[in-house]
Design brief:
Radius of gyration: 21 Å
Number of strands: 12
Number of helices: 17
Largest sheet: 6 strands, parallel
CATH topology of the largest domain: Rossmann fold
Number of domains: 2
Strand content: 5-15%
Protein backbone atom coordinates (compact mmCIF):
# COMPACT_ATOMS: atom_id res chain seq x y z
CA UNK A 1 0.00 0.00 0.00
CA UNK A 2 1.11 3.57 -0.69
CA UNK A 3 0.22 6.11 1.99
CA UNK A 4 0.61 9.89 1.87
CA UNK A 5 0.33 11.27 5.41
CA UNK A 6 0.15 14.91 6.48
CA UNK A 7 0.58 16.12 10.07
CA UNK A 8 0.99 19.89 10.11
CA UNK A 9 1.47 20.38 13.86
CA UNK A 10 3.27 18.75 16.77
CA UNK A 11 0.03 17.30 18.21
CA UNK A 12 -0.79 15.72 14.86
CA UNK A 13 2.77 14.42 14.52
CA UNK A 14 2.35 12.51 17.79
CA UNK A 15 -0.91 10.91 16.69
CA UNK A 16 0.33 10.18 13.18
CA UNK A 17 3.53 8.54 14.42
CA UNK A 18 1.67 6.05 16.61
CA UNK A 19 -0.78 5.34 13.80
CA UNK A 20 2.06 4.78 11.32
CA UNK A 21 3.83 2.40 13.70
CA UNK A 22 0.63 0.35 13.98
CA UNK A 23 0.09 0.37 10.22
CA UNK A 24 3.67 -0.75 9.51
CA UNK A 25 3.16 -3.76 11.76
CA UNK A 26 0.21 -4.79 9.60
CA UNK A 27 1.77 -3.92 6.24
CA UNK A 28 5.58 -4.32 6.22
CA UNK A 29 5.65 -3.43 2.51
CA UNK A 30 4.04 -0.04 3.18
CA UNK A 31 5.36 2.90 1.14
CA UNK A 32 4.93 6.22 2.91
CA UNK A 33 5.54 9.84 2.00
CA UNK A 34 4.30 13.12 3.42
CA UNK A 35 4.66 15.95 5.92
CA UNK A 36 5.47 15.56 9.59
CA UNK A 37 7.78 16.27 12.51
CA UNK A 38 10.40 14.44 14.55
CA UNK A 39 8.16 11.57 15.69
CA UNK A 40 7.09 10.68 12.16
CA UNK A 41 10.77 10.93 11.21
CA UNK A 42 11.48 8.23 13.80
CA UNK A 43 9.02 6.06 11.86
CA UNK A 44 11.00 6.60 8.66
CA UNK A 45 9.12 9.53 7.11
CA UNK A 46 11.26 12.14 5.37
CA UNK A 47 9.07 15.23 5.59
CA UNK A 48 8.76 17.30 2.44
CA UNK A 49 8.51 20.51 4.50
CA UNK A 50 9.32 21.64 8.04
CA UNK A 51 6.10 21.59 10.09
CA UNK A 52 7.24 24.77 11.86
CA UNK A 53 5.95 26.58 8.77
CA UNK A 54 2.38 25.60 9.68
CA UNK A 55 2.51 26.28 13.44
CA UNK A 56 0.54 29.55 13.43
CA UNK A 57 -2.15 30.42 15.98
CA UNK A 58 -5.14 32.72 15.69
CA UNK A 59 -7.53 33.94 13.03
CA UNK A 60 -5.97 37.39 12.64
CA UNK A 61 -2.39 36.22 13.13
CA UNK A 62 -2.53 33.83 10.16
CA UNK A 63 -3.48 36.51 7.63
CA UNK A 64 0.05 37.69 6.81
CA UNK A 65 1.12 34.10 6.21
CA UNK A 66 -1.66 33.28 3.75
CA UNK A 67 0.36 33.69 0.49
CA UNK A 68 3.14 31.43 1.75
CA UNK A 69 0.70 28.83 3.08
CA UNK A 70 -1.21 28.75 -0.21
CA UNK A 71 2.03 28.21 -2.08
CA UNK A 72 2.97 25.36 0.25
CA UNK A 73 -0.43 23.74 -0.21
CA UNK A 74 -0.01 23.80 -3.98
CA UNK A 75 3.41 22.22 -3.60
CA UNK A 76 2.01 19.52 -1.30
CA UNK A 77 -0.75 18.80 -3.83
CA UNK A 78 1.81 18.43 -6.58
CA UNK A 79 3.79 16.02 -4.41
CA UNK A 80 0.67 13.95 -3.70
CA UNK A 81 -0.06 13.69 -7.44
CA UNK A 82 3.51 12.65 -8.16
CA UNK A 83 3.40 9.93 -5.46
CA UNK A 84 -0.02 8.55 -6.57
CA UNK A 85 -0.98 7.07 -3.18
CA UNK A 86 -3.64 4.52 -2.42
CA UNK A 87 -4.61 6.56 0.66
CA UNK A 88 -4.23 10.22 1.60
CA UNK A 89 -4.50 10.56 5.39
CA UNK A 90 -4.36 13.92 7.14
CA UNK A 91 -4.11 14.33 10.91
CA UNK A 92 -5.57 17.29 12.82
CA UNK A 93 -4.67 20.82 11.52
CA UNK A 94 -8.02 21.20 9.72
CA UNK A 95 -7.07 24.55 8.20
CA UNK A 96 -4.37 22.78 6.19
CA UNK A 97 -5.73 19.24 6.01
CA UNK A 98 -9.22 19.89 4.73
CA UNK A 99 -8.02 22.35 2.09
CA UNK A 100 -5.67 19.69 0.77
CA UNK A 101 -8.48 17.12 0.62
CA UNK A 102 -10.74 19.52 -1.22
CA UNK A 103 -8.10 19.80 -3.96
CA UNK A 104 -8.56 16.05 -4.54
CA UNK A 105 -12.34 15.83 -4.35
CA UNK A 106 -12.50 13.66 -7.50
CA UNK A 107 -9.21 11.80 -7.06
CA UNK A 108 -9.26 7.98 -7.29
CA UNK A 109 -7.43 7.35 -4.01
CA UNK A 110 -9.08 7.13 -0.59
CA UNK A 111 -9.20 10.33 1.45
CA UNK A 112 -9.26 10.10 5.24
CA UNK A 113 -8.88 12.51 8.15
CA UNK A 114 -7.96 11.79 11.79
CA UNK A 115 -9.25 14.18 14.53
CA UNK A 116 -12.40 16.02 13.53
CA UNK A 117 -12.69 19.80 13.54
CA UNK A 118 -14.89 20.97 16.39
CA UNK A 119 -18.09 21.40 14.39
CA UNK A 120 -20.03 21.05 17.66
CA UNK A 121 -18.41 24.30 18.83
CA UNK A 122 -18.32 26.42 15.68
CA UNK A 123 -18.58 26.28 11.89
CA UNK A 124 -21.10 23.39 11.94
CA UNK A 125 -21.47 23.55 8.15
CA UNK A 126 -18.01 22.01 7.77
CA UNK A 127 -19.47 18.58 8.57
CA UNK A 128 -21.62 18.60 5.43
CA UNK A 129 -18.77 19.97 3.32
CA UNK A 130 -16.40 17.25 4.55
CA UNK A 131 -18.90 14.57 3.56
CA UNK A 132 -18.51 15.79 -0.03
CA UNK A 133 -14.79 15.08 -0.32
CA UNK A 134 -13.75 12.65 2.44
CA UNK A 135 -14.20 8.88 2.37
CA UNK A 136 -13.74 8.31 6.10
CA UNK A 137 -13.26 10.24 9.33
CA UNK A 138 -11.72 9.16 12.65
CA UNK A 139 -12.97 11.10 15.68
CA UNK A 140 -11.52 11.11 19.20
CA UNK A 141 -14.48 12.22 21.33
CA UNK A 142 -17.38 9.82 21.94
CA UNK A 143 -20.17 12.28 21.11
CA UNK A 144 -18.78 13.37 17.71
CA UNK A 145 -19.89 10.70 15.14
CA UNK A 146 -23.52 11.82 14.73
CA UNK A 147 -22.41 15.30 13.65
CA UNK A 148 -20.90 13.69 10.54
CA UNK A 149 -22.82 10.49 9.89
CA UNK A 150 -26.02 12.51 9.51
CA UNK A 151 -24.43 13.86 6.30
CA UNK A 152 -23.42 10.41 5.06
CA UNK A 153 -19.75 10.55 6.05
CA UNK A 154 -18.47 7.20 7.41
CA UNK A 155 -17.15 8.07 10.87
CA UNK A 156 -15.57 6.02 13.64
CA UNK A 157 -14.94 7.00 17.23
CA UNK A 158 -11.60 5.26 17.79
CA UNK A 159 -10.79 6.61 21.27
CA UNK A 160 -8.61 9.50 22.25
CA UNK A 161 -4.91 9.09 21.34
CA UNK A 162 -3.74 10.24 24.76
CA UNK A 163 -5.10 7.00 26.23
CA UNK A 164 -2.30 5.17 24.39
CA UNK A 165 0.31 7.13 26.33
CA UNK A 166 -1.01 6.98 29.88
CA UNK A 167 1.14 3.93 30.63
CA UNK A 168 4.16 6.25 30.31
CA UNK A 169 3.03 8.21 33.38
CA UNK A 170 5.54 6.66 35.79
CA UNK A 171 7.04 9.42 37.97
CA UNK A 172 10.05 7.27 38.87
CA UNK A 173 11.65 7.88 35.46
CA UNK A 174 11.59 11.66 35.90
CA UNK A 175 12.61 11.56 39.55
CA UNK A 176 15.49 9.16 38.89
CA UNK A 177 16.86 11.28 36.04
CA UNK A 178 16.74 14.50 38.01
CA UNK A 179 18.33 12.81 41.02
CA UNK A 180 21.20 11.60 38.82
CA UNK A 181 21.67 15.15 37.58
CA UNK A 182 21.83 16.44 41.15
CA UNK A 183 18.64 18.43 40.74
CA UNK A 184 16.45 16.53 43.20
CA UNK A 185 16.38 17.89 46.74
CA UNK A 186 14.54 16.64 49.80
CA UNK A 187 10.89 17.69 49.72
CA UNK A 188 11.30 19.29 46.29
CA UNK A 189 7.92 20.08 44.69
CA UNK A 190 7.50 20.22 40.92
CA UNK A 191 5.43 22.73 38.97
CA UNK A 192 4.77 22.17 35.26
CA UNK A 193 4.84 25.27 33.05
CA UNK A 194 3.64 24.59 29.51
CA UNK A 195 3.16 27.71 27.34
CA UNK A 196 2.18 25.93 24.11
CA UNK A 197 3.69 24.59 20.90
CA UNK A 198 3.49 27.72 18.74
CA UNK A 199 5.68 30.80 18.92
CA UNK A 200 2.66 33.05 19.24
CA UNK A 201 1.43 31.08 22.23
CA UNK A 202 4.81 31.14 23.95
CA UNK A 203 5.26 34.88 23.45
CA UNK A 204 1.79 35.64 24.85
CA UNK A 205 1.74 33.19 27.76
CA UNK A 206 5.23 32.42 29.04
CA UNK A 207 6.07 35.92 30.38
CA UNK A 208 3.03 35.86 32.70
CA UNK A 209 3.66 32.23 33.62
CA UNK A 210 7.18 33.20 34.70
CA UNK A 211 5.91 36.20 36.66
CA UNK A 212 3.68 33.86 38.64
CA UNK A 213 6.46 31.27 38.98
CA UNK A 214 8.73 33.88 40.60
CA UNK A 215 6.05 34.72 43.15
CA UNK A 216 5.43 31.03 43.87
CA UNK A 217 9.18 30.52 44.33
CA UNK A 218 9.31 33.44 46.74
CA UNK A 219 6.56 31.70 48.72
CA UNK A 220 8.35 28.35 48.66
CA UNK A 221 12.02 27.96 47.59
CA UNK A 222 11.58 24.18 47.44
CA UNK A 223 9.66 24.54 44.16
CA UNK A 224 11.24 23.48 40.87
CA UNK A 225 9.72 24.47 37.53
CA UNK A 226 9.54 21.81 34.83
CA UNK A 227 8.95 23.00 31.27
CA UNK A 228 7.94 20.37 28.68
CA UNK A 229 8.44 21.68 25.17
CA UNK A 230 8.52 20.61 21.53
CA UNK A 231 10.75 21.13 18.54
CA UNK A 232 8.77 24.02 17.09
CA UNK A 233 9.48 26.33 20.04
CA UNK A 234 12.28 24.73 22.09
CA UNK A 235 14.97 27.35 21.26
CA UNK A 236 12.57 30.19 22.05
CA UNK A 237 11.50 28.61 25.35
CA UNK A 238 15.10 28.01 26.43
CA UNK A 239 16.06 31.60 25.61
CA UNK A 240 13.19 33.03 27.67
CA UNK A 241 13.90 30.72 30.60
CA UNK A 242 17.59 31.62 30.60
CA UNK A 243 16.60 35.16 31.60
CA UNK A 244 14.43 33.98 34.50
CA UNK A 245 16.18 33.49 37.83
CA UNK A 246 14.36 30.28 38.65
CA UNK A 247 15.34 26.63 39.19
CA UNK A 248 13.98 24.97 36.09
CA UNK A 249 14.36 22.00 33.81
CA UNK A 250 13.34 21.82 30.17
CA UNK A 251 12.23 18.35 29.09
CA UNK A 252 11.54 16.78 25.71
CA UNK A 253 10.43 13.31 24.71
CA UNK A 254 7.19 11.45 25.42
CA UNK A 255 8.30 9.12 28.23
CA UNK A 256 10.01 11.82 30.29
CA UNK A 257 7.15 14.25 29.65
CA UNK A 258 4.47 11.91 31.00
CA UNK A 259 6.67 10.91 33.93
CA UNK A 260 7.11 14.58 34.82
CA UNK A 261 3.35 15.11 34.58
CA UNK A 262 2.72 12.37 37.11
CA UNK A 263 5.46 13.66 39.44
CA UNK A 264 4.13 17.24 39.41
CA UNK A 265 2.17 18.94 42.17
CA UNK A 266 0.74 21.67 39.92
CA UNK A 267 0.56 22.62 36.24
CA UNK A 268 0.08 26.00 34.56
CA UNK A 269 -0.62 25.33 30.90
CA UNK A 270 -1.82 26.70 27.60
CA UNK A 271 -5.27 25.49 26.63
CA UNK A 272 -4.92 22.34 24.54
CA UNK A 273 -4.34 18.60 24.68
CA UNK A 274 -1.76 18.96 27.44
CA UNK A 275 -4.51 20.01 29.87
CA UNK A 276 -6.31 16.75 29.12
CA UNK A 277 -3.11 14.73 29.58
CA UNK A 278 -2.41 16.32 32.95
CA UNK A 279 -6.00 15.86 34.02
CA UNK A 280 -5.93 12.16 33.18
CA UNK A 281 -2.96 11.59 35.51
CA UNK A 282 -4.55 13.66 38.28
CA UNK A 283 -2.20 16.65 38.32
CA UNK A 284 -4.02 19.82 39.48
CA UNK A 285 -4.02 22.04 36.39
CA UNK A 286 -4.87 25.66 35.62
CA UNK A 287 -5.62 26.40 31.95
CA UNK A 288 -4.80 29.78 30.39
CA UNK A 289 -4.90 31.28 26.93
CA UNK A 290 -4.54 34.61 25.17
CA UNK A 291 -4.69 35.59 21.49
CA UNK A 292 -4.92 38.78 19.46
CA UNK A 293 -7.88 40.80 20.86
CA UNK A 294 -9.65 40.85 17.49
CA UNK A 295 -9.28 37.07 17.19
CA UNK A 296 -10.70 36.72 20.70
CA UNK A 297 -13.75 38.81 19.88
CA UNK A 298 -14.45 36.79 16.74
CA UNK A 299 -14.08 33.48 18.58
CA UNK A 300 -16.30 34.65 21.43
CA UNK A 301 -19.01 35.59 18.94
CA UNK A 302 -19.07 32.29 17.08
CA UNK A 303 -17.94 29.54 19.47
CA UNK A 304 -20.91 27.86 21.11
CA UNK A 305 -19.39 25.85 23.96
CA UNK A 306 -19.06 26.77 27.59
CA UNK A 307 -15.55 25.42 28.21
CA UNK A 308 -12.15 25.35 26.50
CA UNK A 309 -10.77 22.42 28.53
CA UNK A 310 -11.80 18.96 27.34
CA UNK A 311 -11.83 17.78 30.95
CA UNK A 312 -14.47 20.41 31.69
CA UNK A 313 -16.33 19.83 28.44
CA UNK A 314 -16.64 16.08 28.94
CA UNK A 315 -17.70 16.44 32.57
CA UNK A 316 -19.96 19.44 31.84
CA UNK A 317 -18.56 21.48 34.72
CA UNK A 318 -15.52 23.60 35.58
CA UNK A 319 -13.03 21.15 37.08
CA UNK A 320 -9.90 22.75 35.64
CA UNK A 321 -9.91 26.54 36.21
CA UNK A 322 -9.91 28.42 32.89
CA UNK A 323 -8.35 31.86 32.57
CA UNK A 324 -8.98 32.94 29.01
CA UNK A 325 -8.09 36.20 27.28
CA UNK A 326 -9.16 39.14 29.51
CA UNK A 327 -9.58 36.84 32.52
CA UNK A 328 -5.95 35.75 32.21
CA UNK A 329 -3.91 37.97 34.52
CA UNK A 330 -0.89 37.14 36.69
CA UNK A 331 -2.99 37.88 39.78
CA UNK A 332 -5.76 35.46 38.80
CA UNK A 333 -3.27 32.76 37.81
CA UNK A 334 -1.36 33.15 41.07
CA UNK A 335 -4.53 32.78 43.13
CA UNK A 336 -5.49 29.53 41.37
CA UNK A 337 -1.92 28.21 41.58
CA UNK A 338 -1.72 28.82 45.32
CA UNK A 339 -5.10 27.12 45.83
CA UNK A 340 -3.89 23.96 44.08
CA UNK A 341 -0.56 23.97 45.91
CA UNK A 342 -1.79 24.55 49.47
CA UNK A 343 -5.52 23.79 49.74
CA UNK A 344 -5.65 20.03 50.32
CA UNK A 345 -9.44 19.91 50.08
CA UNK A 346 -9.33 21.58 46.65
CA UNK A 347 -6.66 19.13 45.49
CA UNK A 348 -8.64 16.09 46.61
CA UNK A 349 -11.85 17.43 45.07
CA UNK A 350 -10.05 18.00 41.76
CA UNK A 351 -8.56 14.50 41.62
CA UNK A 352 -11.88 12.87 42.44
CA UNK A 353 -13.58 14.89 39.70
CA UNK A 354 -11.12 14.02 36.92
CA UNK A 355 -10.96 10.35 37.85
CA UNK A 356 -13.80 9.20 35.58
CA UNK A 357 -12.66 10.97 32.41
CA UNK A 358 -10.23 8.35 31.09
CA UNK A 359 -12.98 5.73 30.77
CA UNK A 360 -14.94 8.05 28.45
CA UNK A 361 -12.00 8.25 26.04
CA UNK A 362 -10.87 4.63 25.71
CA UNK A 363 -11.05 2.90 22.32
CA UNK A 364 -14.47 1.21 22.07
CA UNK A 365 -13.04 -2.05 20.67
CA UNK A 366 -11.56 -4.18 23.46
CA UNK A 367 -7.86 -4.88 23.16
CA UNK A 368 -7.28 -2.22 20.49
CA UNK A 369 -5.75 1.21 20.71
CA UNK A 370 -7.01 4.22 18.71
CA UNK A 371 -4.06 3.73 16.35
CA UNK A 372 -4.90 0.05 15.85
CA UNK A 373 -8.53 0.78 15.04
CA UNK A 374 -7.61 3.49 12.53
CA UNK A 375 -4.96 1.26 10.91
CA UNK A 376 -7.51 -1.53 10.41
CA UNK A 377 -9.88 0.82 8.60
CA UNK A 378 -7.13 2.23 6.39
CA UNK A 379 -6.05 -1.24 5.30
CA UNK A 380 -9.63 -2.26 4.54
CA UNK A 381 -10.27 0.87 2.48
CA UNK A 382 -7.01 0.40 0.61
CA UNK A 383 -8.04 -3.13 -0.31
CA UNK A 384 -5.45 -4.88 1.85
CA UNK A 385 -6.24 -8.36 3.10
CA UNK A 386 -6.55 -9.44 6.68
CA UNK A 387 -7.83 -6.24 8.29
CA UNK A 388 -10.85 -6.25 10.55
CA UNK A 389 -12.37 -2.80 10.65
CA UNK A 390 -14.70 -1.47 13.32
CA UNK A 391 -18.23 -0.46 12.52
CA UNK A 392 -18.90 2.96 11.06
CA UNK A 393 -22.17 3.31 12.93
CA UNK A 394 -22.54 6.35 15.20
CA UNK A 395 -21.19 5.66 18.68
CA UNK A 396 -22.28 7.79 21.64
CA UNK A 397 -25.08 10.30 21.92
CA UNK A 398 -25.12 13.60 20.09
CA UNK A 399 -24.87 16.61 22.34
Amino acid sequence: MKLYIIAGEVSGDQIAARFLASLKERDPALEVRGIGGSLLAEQGLQSQFDIKEFAIMGLVEVLRHVPRLKRRMREIAEDVRAFQPDVLLTVDSPGLSLRIHKMFEDAPFKKLHFVAPTVWAWKPWRAKQMAGYLDHLFVILPFEPPYFTVHGLATDFVGHPVTELMALATPELFLQQTAQEGALQEKRRNVIIAPGSRKGEVSKLLPDFLTVAKQLYADDPSLRFVVPTVETVEPMVRDMLSEADLPHEVIVGQALRWSAFKAADLALVASGTIALELGLVGTPTVVAYRVNPLTARIVRAVVKVEFASLINLLNKRAIQPELLQWDFTPEALLAQARRFLYDQAAIEEYRAAVGQTAAMLQAPQAGKSPSDMAADVVLKLAGAAGASAPSSEPQGPQQ
